[in-house]
Design brief:
Chain B: This is ABC transporter permease. The complex is a heterodimer of chains A (255) and B (278). Chain A is 35% helix and 24% strand. With 255 residues, chain A is an alpha/beta fold. In chain A, a hairpin with a 4-residue loop joins strand 1 (2-11) and strand 2 (16-24). Chain B is an all-alpha fold and 278 residues long. Chain B is globular, with a radius of gyration of 25 Å. The chains are: A alpha/beta (255), B mainly alpha (278).
């Protein structure tokens, strides 16, 4: 499956991005990347997706090194990124190459994400949650083996967020693709992920790897999860992120 | 109190009448024609009581009469036809060149570096300055007129296409990259539709310039066309003919723009704009 070997990608003279990240995903595993803003989570996802080819190290899918966008990878962005000139069903079928069964396939995914009846709506008429459902369907229609999610629910209200998290679990149950979920929401990571990597520092590095050994579907108020949340908060060390401060000093000094 | 009570029911009656009898579009047209109508009436009244002298500014009715006589002797359609023919050909050539040049320059960085400074330089030349050269090269027949119109139309369309393409959201482009789109697919499925709004802006302002230049071209030497009527009006001291031509230009300018606007509304119905809130 997907493996990263000593992957680094930094900008701003080595002060932003991430470095030396190695990890390996198993088939059907949900991996969470958790960290405060600016630690390179989204950059890491862009590197895995192939959108950002200027990295060092090796990203491999099924032992095949990727330097460009791989067809086995699907990505769901923070914003829905729908084409405003296409209606729901055409947006879902946007990435399908063969024209013949585009519509019927798109229909199937419309039902899956619970948007039956909204096929003909345009993005301007959709709520944030509906738009994100469309973008989930659009990413799934190409049957990706690795699904990348870049803070997919962070712009949604709390209730829509929970609905879509459950939708994602449903989908994962059906397709068992590997999922990489970048998030800054600890509850979300604990609710969805099998393993959580905590990134810290600027540039970000893997600070800790946690395994969540609770059977899915989990309950949101689970005691074990609550304990882990405390642990994660401690690991993130939000009160005094020394490294970040140090870097800021460096920045000032270099100016 | 008593007067209030009598007024209120009347008001509500009016409201319900409006809703039932006048469709929305018609209502908008009516609202839009209030100011012009008032001005027209004022003009007519001023002419009748002699404030405006008729050899300088004839009354609206006189202008209408003049248009009527042009219609009656059948010459009006010939003039309008020639002008429309010139503007369509010139506009078509201008838009076509602008679409090709604008797409290439907008999409390819090297093309922009090579060609754009030159085009920007040419843009700062008033198109009318080309007239002597065009006449020298092509004579005073149709080619020089049409070329002038095409040059005028080219620049707004070109500029808008380039900025439209360069302004396409990087986030949408990335979606295409995720699906491994070829450059051609990228242009066809993302860049073109996304830059359609600014294309229409360019085309509509191009058409406006087209009307300007068709009149300019006809003023300089033509034996037919609305601009020619203007010259005749000037030489025969008939301000009614001049005004009649101006009214014709206004009417056909507005009509052709409405056609483009119709296409625009249909093609861009997906836009979520302040102007479209209703």
């Amino acid at each position: 499956m997907l493996s990263l070997k000593n992957v680094s990608r930094t900008f701003n003279g080595g002060l932003a991005g991430f470095q030396n990240i190695s990890l390996q995903s198993k088939k059907g595993e949900v991996i969470g990347l958790l960290g405060t803003s600016g630690c390179g989570k989204s950059t890491l996802l862009r590197v895995i997706s192939g959108l950002d080819p200027d990295y060092s190290g090796a990203v491999e899918i099924d032992q095949e090194k990727i330097k460009a966008v791989h067809e086995k990878v699907g990505i769901i962005f923070q914003e829905p990124r729908l084409m405003p000139w296409l209606n729901v069903i055409d947006n879902i079928g946007f990435g399908v190459k063969q024209k013949t069964d585009k519509l019927s396939e798109a229909k199937a995914y419309i039902d899956l994400v619970g948007l039956a009846g909204s096929e003909k709506l345009y993005p301007k008429d959709l709520s944030g949650g509906m738009a994100q459902r469309v973008s989930i369907a659009r990413a799934l229609i190409t049957n990706p083996e690795v699904l990348l999610l870049d803070e997919p629910f962070s712009a949604l209200d709390a209730f829509t967020k929970m609905q879509l998290q459950d939708l994602l679990l449903n989908i994962w149950n059906q397709y068992r693709s590997s999922i990489f979920l970048v998030t800054h929401d600890i509850d979300e990571a604990l609710y969805l992920c099998d393993r959580i990597f905590i990134l810290r520092g600027q540039p970000g590095e893997v600070y800790k790897e946690l395994t969540v050994d609770v059977q899915k579907p989990r309950t949101r108020g689970d005691e074990e999860l609550a304990k882990m949340k405390g642990q994660i908060l401690e690991l993130l060390d939000l009160s005094k992120s020394e490294k970040g401060n140090q870097n800021e000093h460096n920045k000032v000094a270099s100016k | 109190m008593a007067s209030k009570n009598t007024v209120l029911p009347q008001k509500s009656q009016w409201k319900s009448k409006d809703k039932i009898r006048i469709p929305k579009k018609l209502k908008l047209t009516l609202v839009g024609s209030i100011v012009p109508l008032v001005l027209l009436v004022a003009w007519q009244v001023m002419s009748v009581i002699g404030v405006f002298e008729s050899h300088l500014l004839p009354a609206p009715t006189q202008v209408l009469e003049r248009i009527g006589s042009l219609v009656a002797d059948g010459s009006l359609w010939g003039h309008i036809g020639v002008t429309l023919y010139r503007i369509f050909i010139g506009f078509g050539i201008g838009v076509a060149c602008a679409v090709i040049a604008g797409s290439v320059v907008g999409y390819l960085k090297t093309a922009e570096l090579l060609v754009d400074p030159l085009i920007q330089g040419f843009r700062s030349i008033p198109s009318l300055a080309w007239v002597p050269l065009f006449i020298l090269w092509m004579g005073i027949g149709e080619p020089s007129k049409i070329t002038l119109i095409a040059v005028g139309v080219f620049f707004p369309v070109y500029l808008n296409i380039v900025s439209g393409i360069q302004g396409v959201d990087r986030k949408l482009i990335e979606v295409g990259k995720i699906y491994n789109f070829t450059p051609l697919q990228m242009v066809k499925r993302i860049i073109l539709p996304a830059s359609l709004p600014s294309f229409f802006t360019g085309v509509r302002s191009g058409l406006g310039l087209g009307w300007m230049f068709v009149v300019a071209a006809e003023l300089m030497g033509a034996s037919k066309g609305i601009g020619y009527l203007l010259v005749v009006g000037q030489n025969t001291y008939s301000p009614d003919l001049v005004l009649a031509s101006i009214v014709m230009i206004a009417i056909f300018g507005k009509l052709t723009d409405s056609v483009l606007k119709g296409f625009e509304v249909r093609a861009l119905h997906w836009q979520d704009n302040f102007g479209k809130q209703n």
